[in-house]
Every structure is written in structure tokens, then in C-alpha cells.
Amino acid sequence: MVESYKKIRDYIYEKTGIYIEEKRLYFFKNRVFRRMKKIGIDDPDTYYNFLVNGEYSENELVKLISEITVNETYFFREFPQLKSFAEYALKDVISRKNNKTIKVLSAGCASGEEPYTLSIILEEMLDGEFNYKIDAFDIDPIMILKAKAGIYNDYAVRDVPKEYLNKYFEKDKENYKIKDIIKNKVNIFNLNLIEDNTYEKLDDNYDFIFCRNVFIYFSDEIRKKIITKFYTILNEGGYIFLGHSESINRITNAFKVVKANDFILYQKPWNKGGNVNA
Ligand SMILES: C[S@@+](CC[C@H](N)C(=O)[O-])C[C@H]1O[C@@H](n2cnc3c(N)ncnc32)[C@H](O)[C@@H]1O
Q: Whose alpha carbon is nearest atom 10 of ligand 1?
């Protein structure tokens, strides 16, 4: 029985890079079982076949991923880290930037709270001289629908400073709808971090990449693959922001490690004396 679940686990790893460690196998089994129950299958071997060879296999993989990934997110998550973005990294990039558009990528954006938070921060921080554009993506199509809708409950906005809540959201009964001035700056895509063609669809000159609380799902091998891609699409002098318990020190030394407000940021080095690319 356990072997069948391991086969399902390996298939997910092959397709998405999401790696379920041995110690999480019990949780994984429960989630797969929950999914099997929803579609009326009670045997993991039959389910494996349905997942891999069935007529709706691609669709089924997406449903299963939704079941096993945790989409937990909220506005202004890890506030001190966002302060280090606004007060340190952003100022640093602006001081060396040639053109006037700040470009940000939110990779693993879940239901959109992260890219919209960044949009609010940039709206507040940039004066008329600079413009900005944010691209955001997630593997989970259900999250993408929510992100595109831009409608949130009390819980999601619990850490939004009151002033911004009034300024950038429209309250409608129990819900908060993000205003167009913030929404229109964010482009949302359904993409997979580990597929090569994802990076062909994205730009190659981001100033900032946020990939927070996503690396937890991946093996070091996959993390390395993703970080290598990030390196190529990040401008010289640009920064990567990871979740506070995530680090890439073990994987690469291609980035300069910068400490700002007690947070570790990873900066792509630039040629001495040169300006930031792009
Ligand atoms: C815990 S949420 C983090 C959301 C947000 N970055 C934050 O920190 O609040 C992790 C997200 O990563 C997404 N994810 C997992 N594997 C992915 C992959 N291979 N490609 C793109 N997104 C992925 C999940 O669907 C989930 O929405």
C-alpha cells in the first residue's frame, strides 16, 4: 500500500518538483486519500493509473497539487522583511538604475496577496519619476482565479495598515476588493517554477524576485535549478527575497548575501562601477 503512495509521490516530483519528504508521507497519504474519496476511487493503484494515464490526467494532477500544497498567505506577510525591501533594497536599486521602470516578479504568488502587497508598497514609495510592473505566477489554477478576482476576506487583510485598507480596497459587505490602481500593475499567470518554458514566457530583467515560502516544497536539486533560472532573469544588482526560514547558502554562492533589518537578502553582483542593467 505504502509503495503505491510512493509511486504517486514520485510522479508528482517528476512533474512539479514538489518533493514530499519521508516524514511527511503520512500527511501526504491523507491528502491523496481525501482526493481519491472526492472522485470515488478507493484504491491507490487505481488512482495512480487514473492520475498518470487517465483521460483527464493533466487536470487531475492540478487538483491533486491543490490538495497537497499549502496556499497560506496574507497581505503584508513578514512586515519587517517588506520594510527591508522598501527602505533598503528599493532605494539601492533606484540609486543605480538607468531606466525608470521597476520590475518585480512574485513566484508562487498563491491567491495574490503578495504581489498586491508589493504593488501597494511601490505605489507608496515611488514618486512620479519611477513607474513599476509586477508579474506573478503560481502552479495552482484555483489560486490564479482568486488572484485575478482580487477579492479578500477579513483574515487576508488583517495586517494591512488601516490607512492602506481605506486607500487601496473597496469594502463590499464582508469582502475587500483591491482597487484597480493596484491591480492593473500586476500581471498574473498560471505557470510552473520548474518548467523551462516558464522562463521563456517571463521577462529577463527583473529588479526583484520574491519567492517566499515556496522552496519548502523542493529538493536541493530543484532549488538549484530554480535559482539558476532566477539568476538569468534578474538584473545585475537586483535582489531575491525568500521566506524567512529559507536559505540558498547551501546551493549557490553566485549571489552577494546582504543583511538589512535583520533579514538576509540575496543580490546579484554587478560589474564594478557599472550601473544596474536594463
Ligand atoms: C505557502 S504559498 C506562499 C505564497 C506567498 N509567496 C507567500 O509567501 O505568502 C506557496 C505557493 O507556492 C505554490 N507552488 C508550489 N509549487 C509550485 C511550482 N512548482 N510552481 C509555481 N508555484 C508553486 C503553491 O501553489 C502555493 O500557492
A: 214
More confident residue, 271 or 63: 63
Strand, coil or helix: 115: helix
Question: What is the model's pTM?
Answer: 0.89
Residue 76, pLDDT above cutoff 90 = yes
Name the CATH architecture for the domain at 2-68.
Orthogonal Bundle (1.10)
Q: In the chain, what are the domain boundaries? A: 2-68, 79-267
CATH superfamily of 79-267: Vaccinia Virus protein VP39 (3.40.50.150)
Cell numbers at 275, concatenated: 550601473
Q: Which three cell numbers stand for residue 240?
A: 531575491
- pLDDT at residue 277 above 70? no
Site to probe by mutation for ligand 1, drawn from 79, 139, 146, 210 as the one with most ligand atoms within 8 Å of Cβ, is 139
Mutation to probe ligand 1, out of 63, 69, 197 (largest number of atoms < 8 A from CB):
69
Number of Cβ within 10 Å of residue 76's Cβ equals: 17
Which residue bears the cell 482565479?
A: 145
- List all residues whose CB is within 6 A of at least one atom of ligand 1: 16-18, 69-73, 77, 108-110, 114, 138-140, 143, 192-194, 212-214, 217
Q: Which residues contact 180 (CB under 8 A, 6 or more apart)?
A: none
**Which pLDDT score is estimated for 256?**
95
Find out whether 207 and 238 touch, Cβ atoms under 8 Å.
Answer: yes
